[in-house]
Amino acid sequence: MKSVTVGSATLDIIASVASDDIERMTLHNSTNSFLLLEPGRKVDADSVTTHVGGGAINAAVSMARLGFDVATLVKLGRDHNAEKILARLWEEGISTDLIRVSDDHATAISVMIASHDKNAAIFTHRGANGFLSEGDCDATAFDQTDLVYITNLSNDSANRFPGIVQKAKAAGAFVATNPGIRQLSRKTSPFLENLGHVDLFTCNLEEARALIPALVDKTGWERQTADREGDTGPVIEMEGFRLSVSDLCRRLHELGPGHIALTDGGHGAYLSVRGILHFQEAMKVEVVGTAGAGDAFASTLAACLVRGDAPDAAMKHAARNAASVIGHVDAQTGLLRARDLS
């Protein structure tokens, strides 16, 4: 089967720091915690490594290892970091025919600091990722494609989302998207208005929370509780609105997607298929790094659904791949091949 991934490509620099070597502050009245860096002081790291990453690249590697014929549509600069990304794609057998190149912007790069709970703090320079043009996303890119998977689109590239999903759907592809919090919070209206061209929408509960005010504004729903009979899953609250997972999924289904997936980290994940809710527990694993776990889950889920797996089986495979990724510091080493998922 053929797939195209669209979104970001980065070079990731990951510094793993022992918990004793960097302070963490947690607020008593919040779930947030912060790593504290002292100006002018060097911090010893257990390791500093460089890896190829980015949502579209991670998804492409995931699908290639599952046996898909994959091409990725990303924008790179003309620099050494781009050469490293291209080399990684060739190594995984991923087509570079849809790679776009910018003469004005550098390839994106991220610096991650992983310590304590290993949920890395990330400094990112988005570079060329933010400058996909309409011409970069020509409809021919999606010809004879079974699956088009759109990851986070940043800055001006987020304006390409409507055209991408419309062209992909017109080409007859199964369209899946896993946007980031910036796209959902800053480009909310065009995102919601084009969900009718999407078959699978995946996000985490924090990202779902950011959607609630716009959903309410768009549809005129009244403020309500999530205590109605039949509602299941945790309650998501934002600006006075309380929706259960199943209620949120029902409302998103009304905008078009037949499949809605919501992830909740170590608490598991939910998949609503036209109103029927499925739950998958998170698999237990020693956490080495959380980078790429969401990409692994969402891309595996999309690939398994497209190849015909039942929802429960697709969710189990997605959870297993995400758990494998969490066992490694980077986003790709742990990605499993099809034979290993079974």
From TrEMBL:
Keywords: Kinase, Transferase. GO terms for molecular function: kinase activity. Residues 39-334 form the Carbohydrate kinase PfkB domain. Pfam families: PfkB. This is Carbohydrate kinase family protein. It comes from Pacificispira spongiicola.
